[in-house]
Structure formats: C-alpha cells, structure tokens
Amino acid sequence: MQHAIVAAAVFHDRSKTLFFIAAGVLVAWAVLVSAGGIRSASFPTSAIQGRLVMAITAVLVLFATTMAVVTAKTPPGAPPFQTGAVVNGIAPTATPVGPAPTSGALKLAANPQGQLLYDTKALSAASSHVTIDFTNSSPIMHNVTIANAQGKVLGNTPTFIGGTKTLTLDLPPGTYTFYCSVTGHEVAGMKGTLTVR
Ligand SMILES: [Cu+2]
Fold first, then answer.
1. Which of 62, 93, 111, 180 has the fewest Cβ atoms surrounding its Cβ within 10 A?
2. Ligand 1 geometric centre to CA of 118 (Å)
3. Which contiguous run of DSSP H or E holds residue 194?
4. In the chain, where are the structural domains located?
5. Distance of CA 56 to the CA centre of its chain
6. How far is the CA of 56 from the centre of ligand 1 (A)?
C-alpha cells in the first residue's frame, strides 16, 4: 500500500522532497521493526513496547500519507518556454513570423505624413480570394499594384488621394509583390510582399 504510493509519487513528480523524507523514515522504521521482530523471539518484549511500536508506526504512516496528499495537491509548474528542442543546451533560434493570414479584407494604408511608405511591408491572405482595402490619407497620389514573382502586373487600384479604394483579385497560393507604381515611389520603399496561402 505505502509502496504503491511511493511508486506513484516517483512517477508523478520528482520534486516532492517532503513526501520522500516521510516515506523514507517510514520505510527505515519498518525495516528496523522487522529486524527486531526477526532477531528477538519475544519481540515486542512487553505490552507497552508493543503499543509504542504501533504508535510510532501509526504516526509515521499518518505523516507520510499527509505529505503524499499535501504534495499531490501542489500543481506541477508550467514549462516556462515552448521554444522547441534544446540541443546541447542551445535552444533553437526563434523564427520571425509574418502577419497572420487574414481571410477577410487586408488593410493597407499609405504613410499619412507623406512619406513614400505603406504602413506594412507584408500582407498575408488566408485564401486565394484576395481583397485589399487601401487607404491614402497622405497629400500625395498613390496606388497599390500587385505583381507576381515574374514581375507581371495582375491588378491595381486607381492612383488617388483621400479615402479608401478596394482591390479584389483571385490569386493562386504563392508570393507576390505589392507596390506603388507612381514613378519613384517603389524605389523609395513603397513596396512589400503579399503571401497567399
Ligand atoms: Cu505612391
């Protein structure tokens, strides 16, 4: 019975030091009492000694059982990191993750202060039906143009100032570029990558 509790505790949690101390003392006591019983034919030698042995045994069993219950109630600590396999003590480097694919309309905006930039360099669509809502609150005319990996233009918004224009395209899964085709804007940094999942 006690043995089963010890075994269960061993497999449940290695950190239950208190319980092991209690269980260890109990086991040591049991060995001691057994040894005494084997060596001496008249063990226990008196009724008082017999009661004493029983009392100590009872106290130890109670202590060990209590510790088992107390330690079992201690929730196991959550793992602090989920970084994948650790090899030779070196955790794998974190892989930069792009924006989560959006199944709804993708939002894109030009820098409202007039810098030749969009507000993101990466868009990710969860399906081939791609909708981009492009907002241009800057004082400069802009558009959004989509090209495939070979540079072939597949679609674009009009070039405009103020408000939002929507571009909808059906694109096979793959990697595309989005950019502003107004002269000099793409070179200045008005471009990014569109990933279609
Ligand atoms: Cu532009």
1. 93
2. 9
3. strand 191-196
4. 2-70, 106-196
5. 49
6. 87
Q: Model-level pTM?
A: 0.52
Spatial CA neighbour of 63 closest among 40, 35, 29: 29
Rounded distance from Cα 126 to ligand 1 centre (Å): 26
Nearest to 63 by CA among 118, 23, 3: 23
Q: What is the mean pLDDT of each run of 10 residues along the chain (197 residues)?
A: 46 45 47 50 59 53 49 47 56 60 92 98 97 98 98 98 98 98 98 97
Question: What is the helix (H) or strand (E) element at residue 155, kind and residue range?
Answer: strand 153-156
CA 102 / ligand 1 centre spacing (Å): 24
Tell me if the domain spanning 106-196 has CATH number 3.30.230.10. no
CA 145 – ligand 1 centroid, Å: 10
